[in-house]
Write a structure and sequence with these properties.
Layout (H helix, E strand, L loop, with lengths): L1 H20 L5 H6 L1 H65 L17
């Protein structure tokens, strides 16, 4: 039992001494752990690629939201203009049908402002 403690202690001391002397990042270290190094690099690249794809999607989403808001505004303006033309043409048609002797004004109405 005492041997196990001594072995663990010497292994720990050896690992810390190797790290301090720069042997931890030697060629032997990479030969033993090349699979883990490749896996870590692949995961880092996948993370960066995923982050880039998400940022690009968010930018596209914001652009599409802006386009949608502009299209909705254009729709409301076109609908209001169409409804205005329908009302005006209906009024002109009613005036002509009932022979009231009225005509539709060609100029827009004036707004009087009080002082």
């Amino acid at each position: 039992m005492n041997d196990k403690k001594n072995t663990a202690a010497t292994t720990s001391k050896k690992a810390s001494r190797d790290f301090l002397q720069g042997r931890m990042l030697s060629l032997e270290f990479f030969k033993r752990n090349w699979v883990y190094a490749v896996f870590i690099v692949a995961m880092a690249l996948a993370y960066i690629g995923n982050k880039f794809a998400c940022q690009r999607s968010i930018q596209e989403l914001l652009s599409l939201k802006t386009d949608l808001a502009n299209a909705q505004t254009d729709l409301v303006n076109a609908s209001a203009q169409y409804n205005s033309m329908i009302r005006e043409s209906e009024m002109v048609k009613l005036m002509n049908q009932r022979n009231l002797g009225l005509t539709a004004p060609l100029d827009p109405p004036y707004e009087l402002k009080s002082k």
